[in-house]
């Protein structure tokens, strides 16, 4: 995924203010089930928040690895919450228009 510009980050951060965290990273870390849940959440919502309950010291590294694995962009990390964005894929009906 291409890097977001500072203006895009600002807009997405503003949009994420009303979004509640949909995934929590607990003591088991980034398991396959958690990665799949995040992938499904990005398909549905494009912009999500991920709350770090454990691994708070490693949240930057884990967020970057997660974004690379899912072809997403890390908008920013506020406290123990990461904001992640991935644009929705165009459906065949949208491509025909």
From TrEMBL:
InterPro entries: RNA-binding_CRM, RNA-binding_domain, YhbY-like_sf
Domain CRM: 2-97
Organism domain of life: Bacteria
PROSITE patterns: CRM
Entry keyword set: RNA-binding
Presence of keyword Cell inner membrane: no
Entry's Gene Ontology molecular function annotations: RNA binding
SMART domains: CRS1_YhbY
Record SUPFAM superfamilies: YhbY-like (SSF75471)
Xref: PANTHER family: RNA-BINDING PROTEIN YHBY
Protein name per UniProt: YhbY family RNA-binding protein
């Amino acid at each position: 995924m291409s890097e977001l510009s500072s203006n895009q980050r600002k807009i997405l951060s503003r949009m994420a203010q009303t979004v509640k965290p949909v995934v929590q990273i607990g003591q088991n870390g980034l398991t396959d089930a958690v990665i799949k849940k995040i992938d499904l959440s990005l398909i549905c919502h494009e912009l999500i928040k991920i709350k770090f309950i454990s691994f708070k010291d490693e949240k930057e590294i884990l967020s970057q690895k997660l974004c690379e694995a899912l072809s997403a962009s890390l908008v920013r990390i506020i406290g123990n919450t990461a904001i992640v964005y991935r644009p929705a894929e165009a459906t065949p009906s949208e491509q025909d228009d």
